[in-house]
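Sequence in, structure out. First:
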Amino acid sequence: MTAHAAVITAGQLNKGEWIIVSGAAGAVGQAAIQLAKAAGARVIALIRNEADKWSDGCEVDAIAESEKGNLEQVVREVTKGAGANLALNGVGASIMESLLQSLSRDGRMVVYSSAGGNEFNLNLGILYRQQILIRGVNTQLYDASQCAQILTNLAPLIESGALKPSKIAERFSLDEAPQAYKRIAAGISGKLVLVVRPDYHQP
């Protein structure tokens, strides 16, 4: 839902455009990569470091690492100096500056999370000289009809196999929710599922 809202609805991604997907190893990032590829776009994945992995089927055109601080260099190399057309910020303030510097003229940025910080110093010169558009997305504000429309749009991609579900790493019963959140906090590749069934326990 969030990936579709960011890439398609707010981001207005077009065929042949370059998109930077931050948090590419996460569930939203993985979905965004697949949606971008299905739209015929070219993807630059921004991950934290080499340890970050994403699921099978998420092929990208280039990879940058935030710990190396090489996003701008990678973007300029693969786009032949033009910059990316769209950047997804699912991290927050910590990567805003590098994303802005990596965008092309008339570039767009969609922000859907601020886990990595809420505030940063905005250089207005970059904003107006490059005519950059920044837009926020909050799917918690979507009503049932908006969610239904997104799911309707996603259905053909799921049925064709262009959009694959995230890998389920572990399952927990509902009363094991605290343990599940501890696993998430510790860092895990894949999704954790809470099973609403009183007799279920992790094998």
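Second:
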Amino acid sequence: MKTYGTIQEVFQALVDGKCDAAVADNEVSAFFVANNPDKVKITGPQLTNEVDGIAVCKKNEYLLPKINAALKALRDEGAIDKMRNKWLAAK
């Protein structure tokens, strides 16, 4: 097993044959595979169903509702889907 500093280094090592497999977030992997279908593929089942989050200190009662409100607004206006499509969709 080998670790790398960035996910880009991981995928480059995979393409260059310096490693046999890589483990990465599902959406990031799907993006890379969609842009390199002749070089790599996703195999096997998804290992986890983790959801990304934002950590907030429990003592900061001001910040949590602000973050939640901003996330709700971004979801409601479709901005999160737009960003996902822009940055994680195959190009």
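Remark: The chain is about 45% helix and 0% strand.
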